[in-house]
Every structure is written in structure tokens, then in C-alpha cells.
Amino acid sequence: MKTLMIAAGAAALIAGAAEAKTLTVSPGGDVQEKLQTALLDAKPGDTVMIAAGRYELTDGLSLDVAGVTVKGAGPEATVLSFKGQKSSGEAFLVTSNRVIVRDLAVEDSKGDGIKSKGVDQISFVNLRVEWTGGPKDTNGAYGVYPVASTNVLIDRVTVKGAADAGIYVGQSKMIIIKNSRAEFNVAGIEIENSMNADVHDNVATHNAGGILVFDLPNLPQMGGHSTRVFNNKVVSNDTQNFARKGAIVGDVPTGTGIMLMANRDVHVFGNEIDQNKTAAVMLVSYTQKYDDLTYDPLPRDIVVRDNKIGKNGWDPQFPGGDVVAKALGGTLPPVIWDGVTNYTRKGGTAPEVVHVRLLDGPVANLHFAAPGSVFTAKPAVVPSIDDGPMAEPKPVVLPKAQSGL
Fold first, then answer.
1. pLDDT (tens digit, 9 = 90+) per residue, 282-302?
2. CB-side exposure of 389: number of CA atoms within 13 Å?
3. R_g over Cα of the chain
4. Most C-beta atoms within 10 A of its C-beta, which of 129, 351, 389, 390?
């Protein structure tokens, strides 16, 4: 009986593959209805092909069918414009597994650009998400935005103008971001409350902050860890922070290259980091009030090594930064650590254990008395800080179906 059931299942899969079809949408007519109808009518294995042209849309699109590919003719050829969008939601929302979105552009959405929520095997390939009016706090918050997802691939994606993070992955697991470009966003690339991420061979430039790895309290998934940030070009992040009031990224100083906050087991290596006026690499604690007893606000088990670091830190933009820079001779060293190690977690009985391996010195240890206590700083510059070897997170391996995209 079991053998018969397996055979029947395999036959059903083969039949489904044989019946897979392409639903083509072309410009002209009511493109809003045509696009959404195609997304509703698609079956697993189907491709929704959006032909070259410009599509003026007035509402967001959604897909909740598994195993569908949504494909354009290229990010300069197939353009979905949401300039006339009436709702404030995302431009395109995916809530189904094994979906590929590729070869198209999304422009001027009122909310987020392309979002996935609660899905497995989501791939964003060869996309452009842009707010064409330049950096404004009225732009959508996120460009490409997988949240609560697993097996996430972001490859050859360009995002410009997001009012929070251009490429943002939140509360997710098993993530690869590669070969992508983020510019003129508040944060270029951000990994938040996520586990097992590889961020490599990307360009983050002309953002307020280049690449961020954060962990925040009071979220459904806590305890972000195991991120590798390597072989990226993080240069000239010089756009004035234009985040909306109250957004956590509003605290990212303009001119930050890479910032690590309250996350664990993060390795930063092989990157080119240059022309960021606040700092090349910053390790900071979370400073806002919270009531989450499980939360650890300190960065720990951090490795910074073998990066090519140019001129950074000549005009730090955080409160008291000028004072700290003056105390250190006028320019901040390549790596800045707030130095908080004597913190006891809420409800805890012993101080947190913090290990760092900061080899791309000189390193400024600010020796803050507590998270955010800038004016208690007792800065000291040392050649490096080395608490001993720490195992590098294992490379992220995605399912075979995503590896050849």
C-alpha cells in the first residue's frame, strides 16, 4: 500500500509538471485586473510572464499559490509603476512557498516594494525596486522584504530610495544575499532577528548606513545569530539619514559602513570599506527601553578580520562623536566598539559573557558604562582585541531548486 501511495504521488507530480503553463500578461487594457487575475489563476508549476512594457497600477498585487514563477523581460524592460497606488500597502505580496520573482522592476510603491511573509523557498532574482524621486521619508520603508521566511535567496537585486532598508530580511532563517546593490536608502542591507545568513559580493553605497546586522526585543523570533558578511564593497555611505520618526534605523549615524547591534556570532571579513565618515565598522548595544526578559542587548561572539579598510571615521555623526574623535586624535579608528561587557540581562543574576575578535585595528574600545552611555566613555585605542578563535558559521546551503537560479 505504501509503495502504491508513493507511486501515485510521483505520478501526480509528473502530471502536474506536464500541465504547467505560461500565463502571459501584456501592456494595454486594464493591466491591474489582468495581472491580478493571472496571479489568482496560476497553478503550481506555472509561470506568470509579464511582457516588456510599463504597467501603471493603482493597487497592490498578491500571490498565494505555491510553486509559481513571476517573470518579466528584465528590470529595465518590465516596469510595474505604483505611482498612482491608492492603498498604502506593499506593491507585491507573496504568501506561498517555492515562489520565484525575477526580471522586473517595481517603482514608487506607497508601502514596501516586494514582500514575502511566512513562506519557504522564496527567490528574488534580477530585480530593481526604486523610488524614482530620490531619498524621501514618504517613500516606502523596505524595497525587497522577506519576513518570517526560510530559505531566502536574493540575487542581482538593486534597491534605491527605501525609507528604512533597501534589502531587508527579518525573523527568517537560511538566507543568501549576493551580487546585489543598495544605494540611497537609509540602510542598504539589513539582517534583523534572523539566523544563518550569508551576505556577500554586494555593493552598499550612498546609504546612511551600508550593512546592518541587528537583533531587537519583543519580536516573534528572537536571538539572531550566525551571519557572515564577506566580500562586499561598502563605500561612500553618505546620504543623510531620512528615516521616518520613531524608526530604529533613524538612530544609524550617517556615514556608517557596517553596524552590528545586539547580535551573536557575526563574522565580517574580506570586505572593502572606504569613505564612510562615521566609521568603517561599529559594534553597539541596543539602547532603547524594553521589557523582554529573553533579550540580550549586547553584540557578542563577533569577528572582524581581513577587511580592506580605507579612509573612514573623519566626521562621526553620533552624539558626542566629535568629542570621542577629538580624544582619539581627530579621526576614529577603523573599528569602534562601545565596550559594554558588564551588563546583566533583565531578570538575570550574572553579567553577560562577551567575546570579540577585532583584528582590523587599530580598535577604539569606548568602555561605555552601559549601553548608549556616550558621555561615560573612556576611549582607549589598541592594535586589536582578541579573545581567541571563534568558529565561523557554516556556509548557508539552500535547496537545489534555488541554487541554479
1. 999 999 988 888 899 999 999
2. 2
3. 22
4. 129
